[in-house]
Design brief:
With about 100 residues, this protein is mainly beta. The protein has one domain: Immunoglobulin-like (Sandwich). Helix content is about 0%, strand content about 50%. The strands form two sheets. Strands 4-3-6-7 form a four-stranded antiparallel beta sheet, with no helix packed on it. A three-stranded antiparallel beta sheet has the order 1-2-5, with no helix packed on it. A hairpin with a 5-residue loop joins β3 and β4. The radius of gyration is 13 Å and the shape is elongated.
Length: about 100
């Protein structure tokens, strides 16, 4: 775990009927309330292109770790792995990222 950062501790992906993907991501963060909290997570291709962003609209200081999902993520054909990273409202993207194999 990264001190003061938002860490991705688990992630799963499932393909939808239309070919887009749904991601379910678990984040652990040092939320202290509105002054500092995990405020988003991103799905990225291996070259760093952002494929989808889940904005987190409130702190989760009493719910750690917490899981949220994002549907409708379009992943380029042939992509077999993506990376999920979480953002802290103060520290930015500094925590543990997680690779997700798409199958």
């Amino acid at each position: 775990m990264s001190e003061g950062c938002a860490d991705v501790v688990a992630a799963a992906a499932a393909v939808q009927l239309d070919g887009a993907w749904t991601f379910e991501v678990t984040v652990s963060s040092a939320d202290t309330g509105w002054e500092k909290y995990a405020d988003a997570w991103e799905v990225r291709s291996l070259d760093g292109t952002v494929l989808g962003t889940r904005v987190l609209t409130h702190p989760h200081e009493t719910e750690q770790p917490f899981t949220r999902s994002l549907a409708g993520v379009v992943v380029p054909d042939g992509t077999t792995e993506v990376v999920v990273a979480a953002r802290d409202s103060v520290e930015g993207f500094c925590g543990e990222e997680l690779a997700v194999t798409l199958s």
